[in-house]
Specification:
The protein contains 3 helices and no strands. The chain is an all-alpha fold. The protein has a domain of about 80 residues.
Amino acid sequence: MPTTLDISSILSIVLASASSYPETASRLSSILDVPIPPAEQSAQLIELTARIARLEAIQESQSAELAACRERSAVAIQKFYTKDILKAGDGWAELEGRVEQVERKVRRAALAKRIDENVVG
């Protein structure tokens, strides 16, 4: 596809990237220095692809199972807090209210007894 840019724009784009050309050429040349592995190694790797795929499937299955376990644990913890901890707190609050009522009655009875003793004595 032909460009619609003028020559000065193209030249400025090329010159802006010019500093990276030697490094890119060097990297591409270094690829030639990498030895090609023996065919036996490549064949062994190809044979392992099916095993690797099975192991990946097992890992995905285990990850899904672990996620489900985490979700169930979160639900169990939430139930524990909402049903056990909060109900226990409600029970303690109710007990504290009853104790306060009994304390008030005891104070009233003690006050009434002192008044009776002062009136009689």
